[in-house]
Write a structure and sequence with these properties.
It contains eleven helices and 14 strands. The chain is an alpha/beta fold. It has three domains: 11-107, OB fold (Dihydrolipoamide Acetyltransferase, E2P) (Beta Barrel); 113-274, Rossmann fold; 363-421, no CATH class. It has a five-stranded mixed barrel with strand order 1-2-3-5-4. It has a five-stranded parallel β-sheet with strand order 7-6-8-9-10, with helices on both faces. Helix 3 (152-164) runs parallel beside helix 7 and helix 4 runs parallel beside helix 5. 21% of the residues are buried.
Length: 422
């Protein structure tokens, strides 16, 4: 039988696991471990749990939520990765584990190969071509910014705009700029600004998309295809402002303009108010000189005209025309008077002729005319015997009966009797 141990040398499970944990952490406090991802899980809390394995062994790993923002790709089972962290023992289960602080794709140049692959793809589609890039407005009223709401980038942008061109308003769409969710968040922010109606106060004239400096992993969200596609699809001009001047991302290549830093972006998208004021003063001076010169030239031309012989010619010509007009008026007056006199003479002659043709004129001289059935009697033969006729005189008419000629040869007494009967 094995010898029994004294009570004071027996360890509790907790003491043993804690001692193992201290021993492991002392020797493996800062390690890089490469292996194949297995059983990758993102808990509702945001923490990630997974296993690293190779042909002969495996080890559990955990990455806390606040550290996942430094992962620039979507981990998948079977992916070969390198994990940086420290080894420890999870006392509740007595499991050896790695508390991961960073994760990268394994293999020399894997990250760069992914970058070059996407870069080549987008170039072949023409997303880097200068012809498709939009010009920036000279004096933007509203500038949309897609970046972190807590970082230094938005502070630098606002400070730069306030210093250079205070009238420009800044509208922030705060998004995550690193981590697994960052690429889609940035793309959604760009799309959201493009959906703002044109008559809305937050409708931007252009967009600034970016973040402050950091490691390659920190900036990797701006090398993702989702961000590149969103920038290319934007109807508003996009200025990329990612990291430092030496950092060049896919977003920089697709954007309409690239600024080396967020502060540089503020200088790029608006004019300096001092430059604007100087340009306005210079334009005012040029306009004043030009206007003054034009006025002086015009004044000299007017003075030359006034002093010239030709300037007074219109007055003399006007006097000549006035004299000619008086002559014409006099001729017209005399001609009119002569025409009126001729017309009056002609009218008198016509009136005399009309008076002579008046059928009542002979009646006033004692003549009479006879009508039968309303028609003038022009011949004796036209009247039948005993015909009733009307005798028209100057002051009226009388009716009479026509008798045969032999009946008219009666004595004066008979004629008188017949006339009385009529």
């Amino acid at each position: 039988m094995p010898p029994s141990a004294p009570d004071d040398s027996v360890l509790s499970v907790t003491a043993l696991t804690r001692g193992l944990s201290d021993l492991v952490e002392a020797h493996y406090d800062d390690v890089w471990v490469e292996g194949e991802l297995s059983d990758f899980t993102r808990a509702a809390s945001g923490h990630c749990y997974f296993t690293l394995k190779d042909d002969d062994a495996q080890i559990r790993c955990v990455m806390w939520k606040h550290l996942t923002q430094y992962v620039y790709f979507e981990p998948e089972d079977g992916m070969q990765v390198r994990v940086h962290g420290h080894a420890s023992v999870y006392e509740r289960r007595g499991d050896l584990q790695i508390q991961a602080q960073a994760m990268r794709k394994a293999g020399k140049g894997a990250q760069q190969r992914a970058f070059e692959k996407l870069k080549r793809k987008l170039r072949e589609e023409g997303l880097f071509e200068a012809e498709r890039k939009q010009s920036l407005p000279a004096f933007p009223d509203t500038i949309g910014v897609v970046t972190s709401g807590q970082g230094a980038a938005i502070h630098d942008i606002r400070a730069g705009l306030e210093r250079r061109f205070p009238p420009a308003a800044v509208v922030l769409c705060p998004v995550a700029v690193q981590g697994l969710d960052a690429p889609q968040a940035i793309a959604d922010g760009i799309a959201a600004f493009n959906d703002v109606p044109a008559d809305h106060d937050h409708h931007p004239d252009l967009l600034i998309v970016g973040r402050g400096g950091g490691s390659t992993e920190d900036l990797w969200a701006f090398n993702e295809e989702a961000v590149a596609r969103a920038i290319a699809a934007s109807e508003r001009p996009v200025v990329s402002a990612v990291g430092h001047e030496s950092d060049v991302t896919i977003a920089d290549l697709v954007a309409d303009e690239r600024a080396a830093t967020p502060s540089t972006a503020a200088e790029l998208v608006v004019p300096d108010r001092r430059d604007v004021a100087q340009r306005v003063r210079a334009a005012h001076s040029r306009l004043h000189r030009h206007t003054t010169r034009r006025l002086q030239d015009a004044r000299r031309r007017v003075e030359a005209l006034v002093s010239s012989h030709a300037f007074h010619a219109p007055t003399r010509r006007l006097e000549q025309h006035r004299q000619h007009l008086d002559t014409l008026i006099d001729r017209l007056t005399r001609s009119g008077e002569r025409l009126v006199e001729q017309t009056r003479t002609r009218l008198d002659r016509l009136q005399d002729r009309l008076h002579a043709a008046d059928p009542a004129q002979p009646l006033r001289r004692g003549y009479a005319y006879v009508t039968h059935d309303g028609a003038p009697v022009r011949s004796v033969e036209a009247l039948p015997d005993d015909a009733r006729v009307r005798i028209h005189l100057n002051d009226g008419h009388r009716e009479a009966t026509v008798h045969p000629p032999e009946a008219s040869q009666t004595t004066p007494e008979a004629s008188q009797t017949q006339e009385d009967s009529t």
